[in-house]
Amino acid sequence: MTTATRPIRTYDVIVFGDEVPGIMAVVAAAREFNRRTGRRLRALLMFKGNSQAGVGGHLVRGGLAYLDRSSIPLDVRQSLGLATFGDPSSLYKEFLQRSGVIQIALDPRKADAALRKMLSEAGVDILSRIQIESVLKEGNRISGIRLTHGETYLAKQFIDATVNAELAQAAGVRKLQGFGTFGLPDSELPVTLVFETEGLSIQRLKEVELSYIRRLTNPNDAEAQRYIAIAAGSNQALADFLRKDCVDAQGKPKTMVVGQDHIDIRCRALSIFYHAFRGKKLSLAESGMVLDQANIACLPGGRLSWNALLCYTTGAQAEALARAGAKPTAAMVEEVSFIERWLKGVGATRVRPMLELYIRHAGNVMDAVEPLSGARMLEGGVLANEAIATFGYHLDVRGGITGLGARANERGIESITFHTPPLFNVGIRHALMRSVPNLAVVSPASGFDGYACAAGRIVEFNVAVGQGVGIAAAIALNSNRNLADIPNREVRQVLVQTGQLPKIYGRANMLEASRLQAFESTMIA
């Protein structure tokens, strides 16, 4: 149906946001709908970014090539015969295989091609560079999205795959800013502007780092000791910490670890030299930006992708950046120009910032059918007979949460760190919205309480959730129900029937779970 000025198009499922979990959700929906009905799902993927610059959100346009993978204890792997990263969801394995990932490094160019092919095979339409004018509702359900260009898109089920739950917010779902679940709406994880280098070989980088470590740990190298003082902001305790951080417990240089397709930087030697070059303290809150210990993905053609430049961000700033299409600020781009000058001094021929930011987190929705806490993750997640996958990841938050320690101390809590990574079974109910029952939020903004978003923001986890939500959307369409009505067990049943259910191996750590439960309930209250 069309009018002269306001065309209307009708779909079965609309996904808003092109982060990889959302793309996997619509692919799963299309495949399951076709399996059930023999018909093609009418599906639309719409997002704010420019599809010509790549499809795939922060992994593609943001260039986050170093993938955070599931963390599985060695004894669990050995007892179940699991590979290093366990047994991920079938769609995540397919995505990695199609993108040519060996272990960790994802080439954004190959990922873009793989995602486009999967969307094309599923018959999904793509619409980019859009803005929401308004959300149409029938009762508490979304019926359509009207865009600022004037056209309206109708559907029966909706999936929000944005880091800030932008569609959900427009539909009236309540969302807390920043770490509002801890009573800290102004605090947020830093954002990263990923950059790629060319011309700097792995061997050369190893040599540079080792020479820096040797200089920094040599008390007779006056220049290097001055560099430490600059990076420490003349704070003697911090200077001592930075110096000691350069060696391990045996006093050996804490050099980088080079894997098959990635590099893990274990100490702050490179960071110290860069911050001395900049004349800035190695402190995120005080300097606004830090060159952190890098996670580096090794890509074809000698390209190295650096997840290292952390930029301090408040809750309001993270929301604003997400709404502005994750575009880096002028100050962030300028910082990369300094990094370029510094790295060219040690052998790089080119340093290129990515088009979009990696925004780790931008608040959480409040209306999930079953909110998921960090304590619940440590308890092992959903029941094994409901689980659709298993995921493990530490509850550390890179860059820290400003004010969390002080707020905890006010409540008589001394420790805010929980070192045991949960290994938990995955379901979909934390992504389903009670207040808007035909909407799911599959992203770091899902219904996470407390520390849960530390693990819940990771793509590998959210792809498993997205695959489940996509299957749930197909079930809902086929049975004339809402997404919120679909239980985990129905999704699991499909995965079993189609041979897609991965191994389930969540483990409960009740001691740590009870400690975190006490912390989260005290902090959230």
Percent range for β-strand residues: 15-25%
Number of helix segments? Answer: 19
How many domains in all?
A: 2
- The radius of gyration computed from the alpha-carbon positions, rounded to a whole number of angstroms, is 23 Å
CATH architecture of the largest domain: 3-Layer(bba) Sandwich
CATH class of the largest domain: Alpha Beta
Structural class: alpha/beta
Report the count of strand segments: 23
Helix content: 25-40%
Short description:
This protein is of the alpha/beta class and 525 residues long. The protein has 19 helices and 23 strands.
Task: Explain what you see.
The protein is α/β, with parallel strands linked by helices and 525 residues long. The protein has 2 domains: 353 residues, FAD/NAD(P)-binding domain; 156 residues, no CATH class. The strands form 6 sheets. Strands 10, 11, 12, 13, 14, 15, 16 and 17 form an 8-stranded antiparallel sheet that branches. The chain has a 5-stranded parallel sheet with strand order 4-3-2-8-22. Helix 1 runs parallel beside helix 17, helix 8 crosses helix 10 and helix 17 crosses helix 18.
